[in-house]
Amino acid sequence: MTQQRSQRSHQQSPISNVRRGDIQRWSQTLIPTAREAPSDAELPSHRLLVRGGFIRRVTAGVYDYLPLGWRVLRKISQIVREEMNAAGGSELLLPALCPTELLKETGRAEDYGDLLMRFEDRHGRDSYLAPTHEEVITEMARGSITSYKQLPLNLYQIQTKYRDEFRPRAGLLRGREFIMKDAYSFHLSLDGEAGLNAGYDAMYRAYTNIFSRCGLDFSAVEAEAGPIGGSASHEFMVNCESGEDTILVCPETGYAANVEKCEIGERTAPARGFFAGEPTGELDKIHTPGCPGIVEVCKLMKVKARDMLKTVVFKVVASTPEEAEGYPGDWWVVAVVRGDHDVNEGKVRDFAECKLELADPEQAKRAGFEIGFVSPRAAVGKPQTLLVIDPDAAVGWDEGKDKPRFWATGADEKDHHVKHFNWARDLGKDPALAMGADDCFFAVHSIRNAIEGDPSPRGKGEPLQAKRGIEVGHIFKLGSKYSDAMGFAIMDENQQRQSVIMGCYGIGVSRTLAACVEMSHDDDGIIWPAALAPYHVLITVMKADDERQARVAQQLADELSERGVDVLIDDRSERPGVKFKDADLIGIPIRLTLGDKALDQDSVEFKVRGSEGKGELVAVREAAMACLENLA
Ligand code: ATP
Ligand code: MG
Fold first, then answer.
1. What pTM did the predictor assign?
2. Fewest CB within 10 angstroms: 219, 408, 495, 624, which?
3. Residue 145's pLDDT is what?
4. Residues 300, 429 within the same domain
């Protein structure tokens, strides 16, 4: 399932045909609109949600959801519920406050590190506020599911999550407290109707329905499983320039992947073979003090990043005591890419076939790696080391310029770099000859993040295109990662004990709200899609104390409510200019304006948010119908 979906459709009417719509008077609720945006608000969703009185900041990454904001969140949650229920899910609610003991079984207290909101209660018990609920639900399921007859099962909740994000950002896009829908599925097989694959596909379809119904323009892309682990995963990305994530797409085949996951099609090896080419000069050591990153080093040395070799050192982490015993001592993986590229840890890990972590500088120094100044030479002569070089970095000849390739790299000495590095000369041996036994192991392999223009892994030679996105949903096949770690096994049909196979499926409910605003706004304010709008119709009464206007407003509101439409009546005694500005800001899809001039002709002004110019006059008795037609 690698297709890209990009759509904007409403498969279902946003208007309820079973319940009466709500009627709310502005004067009786709290919508604290503001002219000024908070000074730290860089993105439109942050600015507009605060200015529109949807949310209010309490502290970094923590917000009040005010009445309008909460209404939108409830509408998103309702869509999520309907689609999750239709896909066979059952809703429950697990605690946010959990004992850290639960994480001991999976080692995730360490994996989460500072992201985990952790504290001691008054009795000294180590506790945390859940960033996600795999352990909690696995513990619950372990105690409640005893027979294969109870599977498959899909359980979900819509709940507040806590992550101590280093940089909470952009209002609701990256909070420290946020609302997530998280679902977990339980199976005994991968295949078949009751298997994980079918359960995963059902969630994929449910997510497609959810985000389509929310009126979002989105793509489903292949993704890294991340710290949650497992074997397969997709992210649902709202296509939006202000997104933090980069996705790469192959327009030819529809392949789409997160930059961390994206494979790169075959890159042609240099005609002369890897590494071949004479030195461009004597090795020239340069003092580069006080350069915290590659940008500063390049500036000081007057070289381009693409002419640098970037070397990242990883330490191999043993997953089991047996593994540690089988490979005694420290093992290292030294990854080399071009300076303008990024090492992809997942690709290095997959190639090395072992768990890795970035080397600790002190420990690495004792092993002969001067972190920050490491060159590929540092691996030579170290038997417990794998030197793996990306194809773009493993060249000695500049094909474009038809001359030997210039390289600069670290000098393996603090505060020093070298110019004129040459693979053949400076490794002291022909690197293409595999080393081994008493030296490092050696390989050329694709280990960097894909970038725009790279060959697509699917369409032959087709270049990948980059797009920005906001991750609003993420689905994973977990396999038995958690059930193995937590001893969750049950008897199958043949009375054999089997680990339960799991999937997990998240949606950022509060992030979806912000993503929707990112996608749908103009200079004046938000433009809600009908499905998520806090109210569908805003009735603006020009004179608050005018009896006729008040009466017609109530009559229209009743008529609309009768048909399931949610109505907000702006009955404040404010100047019309203020009311119109606020109306644009909060973005209700339709505004009906009641003024004397129009009412003298038995009409109201009908205006769709986001449409150009003045509204049109519509007869009072036809106004409700006009709204319904527009909202359908
Ligand atoms: P990110 O990469 O953006 O940090 P994640 O991949 O760590 O997110 P998941 O563990 O996949 O997040 O969580 C499921 C969903 O919860 C995400 O797809 C996203 O929509 C939402 N989410 C995660 N972190 C946050 C946050 N700090 N604020 C708001 N929503 C979030
Ligand atoms: Mg994710």
1. 0.84
2. 495
3. 94
4. yes
